[in-house]
Amino acid sequence: MYDVLIGSFISAFSTGIGAIPILFMRRTITHRLRDIMLAFAAGIMTSASMYNLIPEALGHSNLFVLTAGLLLGALVLLVLEMNIPHVDLENPDQGPLVPIEAKAFLIIAAITLHNLPEGLSVGVSYASEDQNLGNLIAFSIGLQNAPEGFIVALFLVNQNVGRLKALGIATLTGAVEIVTSIIGYYLSSFVSGLVPYGLAFAAGAMMFIVYKELIPESHGDGNQRTATLSFLLGLLTMIGLTEWL
Question: Crossing angle, helix 133-158 and helix 163-190, to 10 degrees?
Answer without folding.
Answer: 150
